UniProtKB/TrEMBL annotation:
It comes from bioreactor metagenome. This is Uncharacterized protein. Residues 348-375 are annotated as: Disordered.
Length: 554
């Protein structure tokens, strides 16, 4: 761990001014002992790790590579630093941020920029319309999903990467799980030309899915990069806080004042040999003030002085005491010593022989030790800070612009409505007839979530979804309901998380005109103060993001 020591002292090089000597004094020379040596050693190491964490976050935030070899090296480096830093600091933000680098950079390296545009035809066009217009997933929601996966799997980057790819694959596969009647409805709503039948409509599934996935990955660069940098910025903030904390702790150790007792031990009581001798600490650096480290041995054979740990380091970390007779340039006596806190005692024998080092006395007290006051542990919870209603107005405007369908949607916390109407020409060729004016409307009501949610708390929500207008012939009507907390899905007693209503004349046996239930989820605790998470409540075409922040509440 010498590198960590060196990094720690490099961080305060402008203060110490003699990094090499200081590192040698602590790591190799053994010039400090006892609790002081332990504090300086661990403090230097922690400071170095904190500095490395800050530098790592900074480097990876402003650089991205798609070179597979570099990504492998980067991943190993990130894991190594994360394991060391998290081991010392116990910081989830650091671990999640470093995991984000290891995972997102690998995923991003597979993106083909030439796939930004895609125009599939026939069934492929309907498939793309469903994913991009009929049932899209916003950049914000993708970003939320990516962040949630990383937070829940920060200690296993391979699993996190697999889950991200599974989430993308699942999105691309949704269309193929629809029944043929729903696919035909989407095709009609899309306004695209199409020709496919019920028996073979899935025959090109693999090719179309692969093409669309490449196109989707290109569009996921933004949420992937945003999630990556968001987690890294959180890690950088945490690393900076740790660095400042370790720097202050190190500063406290460096500013400690050490009392020094220089005591002559005469062979006969009262016969002191070194009275008037020049006393010098050695070796000292060329930049040190020599006079500050020089004195005269007084009567009585005892000399007292002091220095700070920082001053000792800046002056070259002297580790021996030299005594010079008057007018002499060479020391008559040299005594080695180690610095201990709070008092360093240096014993000098009148015979000129070096005395064994004296261990600092163990301080004792007859006074009862004070019982520290126990402060209540701060309590944290998710606090509602923002509510965002979403009705995908851009999609509504795009559909209405075509002049074939007239749609609308409204969203407010706990209450959502949608309408759909066919305003194209009547066509009696299909069976049943395609009739101008056929329509449907839905209403979804949800209980509003609490404004404060504690980590580990179970939140239950009740909902009801029904058709408020059902005037259909050729087309089918649909509506859906769900609630998600990040990657955590709210489920009913049967573990079902997605609920739909369906109305069809042709497939009337499959119709479900209304549905209601209570769904619940256990809300996980936040990682660090300031974390944000979103609770989505709604369905296809409308919903609300309830934005929560992890805050101290007591």
């Amino acid at each position: 761990m010498i590198a960590a020591f060196e990094a720690g002292f490099e961080a305060i090089n402008s203060v110490v001014g003699n990094t090499g000597t200081a590192v040698t004094a602590i790591t190799l020379g053994g010039q400090y002992e006892g609790a002081l040596a332990e504090a300086l050693g661990s403090g230097s190491q922690h400071l170095g790790l904190a500095l490395a964490a800050v530098q790592t976050c900074y480097d990876f935030t402003y650089s991205f590579s798609d070179d597979q070899g570099k990504l492998g090296t980067l991943s190993n480096l990130v894991k190594n630093i994360a394991n060391n830093a998290v081991g010392y600091f116990g910081s989830a933000a650091l671990q999640v941020g470093f995991a984000g680098v290891a995972v997102f950079d690998v995923v991003l390296s597979t993106v083909q920029s030439d796939m930004m545009e895609l125009k599939l035809e026939n069934l492929g066009g309907v498939y793309q319309y469903y994913n991009d217009v009929e049932s899209p997933r916003s950049v914000k929601e993708w970003r939320r999903i990516f962040i949630s996966i990383l937070r829940e799997n920060a200690d296993d980057t391979e699993t996190a990467q697999q889950l991200i790819n599974q989430e993308i694959d699942s999105f691309c596969d949704r269309f193929w799980s629809l029944d043929y009647g729903k696919v035909k409805e989407i095709a009609a709503v899309s306004g695209l030309k199409y020709s496919f039948d019920e028996r073979q409509w899935t025959k090109d599934r693999e090719v179309l899915t692969q093409q669309y996935r490449g196109y989707l990955m290109a569009h996921l660069q933004a949420p992937l990069t945003s999630a990556r940098n968001y987690l890294l910025n959180q890690a950088m903030e945490q690393a900076q806080r740790e660095f400042e904390k370790q720097l202050l702790a190190m500063q406290k150790e460096l500013n400690k004042t050490v009392k020094v007792q220089i005591i002559e031990q005469p062979e006969k009581a009262g016969e002191y040999k070194y009275e008037g001798y020049t006393v010098r600490f050695a070796p000292i650096s060329s930049s040190a003030d020599a006079k500050s480290w020089t004195g005269k041995m007084p009567k009585g054979g005892e000399m007292n002085t002091s220095f700070t740990v920082l001053g000792h380091m800046q002056s070259g970390s002297p580790n021996r005491l030299e005594l010079y007779p008057a007018g002499k340039d060479s020391p008559e006596v040299t005594v080695s010593f180690k610095v201990s806190y709070p008092t360093t005692t240096i014993l000098i024998s009148s015979s000129g022989k070096e005395k064994p080092e004296q261990q600092p006395p163990i301080e004792s007290s007859t006074e009862p030790s004070a019982v520290p006051e126990t402060k209540p542990k701060p309590e944290y919870a998710w606090v509602l800070v923002e509510t965002i209603n979403e009705n995908y107005q851009a999609n509504i405007d795009n559909t209405n612009k075509g002049g074939v369908y007239e749609v609308s949607a409204s969203a407010s916390p706990g209450s959502y409505t949608s309408t759909w109407k066919y305003i194209g020409d009547t066509d009696t060729y299909p069976d049943p007839d395609q009739i101008n004016g056929e329509s449907f409307a839905t209403q979804l009501t949800f209980s509003v979530p609490p404004t404060v949610i504690k980590g580990g708390e179970t939140v239950s929500l009740s909902f009801n979804l029904a058709f408020t207008d059902d005037n259909l012939s050729y087309f089918d009507g649909t509506g859906s309901a769900r609630a998600d907390w990040g990657n955590v899905k709210f489920t009913n007693a049967a573990k079902k998380s997605h609920f739909e209503i369906y109305s069809s004349v042709k497939y009337s046996s499959k119709s479900v005109k209304s549905i209601g239930d209570t769904i619940s989820a256990v809300i996980p605790a936040g990682y660090s103060e300031g974390d944000r998470e979103e609770l989505w409540i709604g369905g296809t075409g409308y919903g609300t993001y309830f934005v929560y922040e992890w805050k101290q509440i007591s």
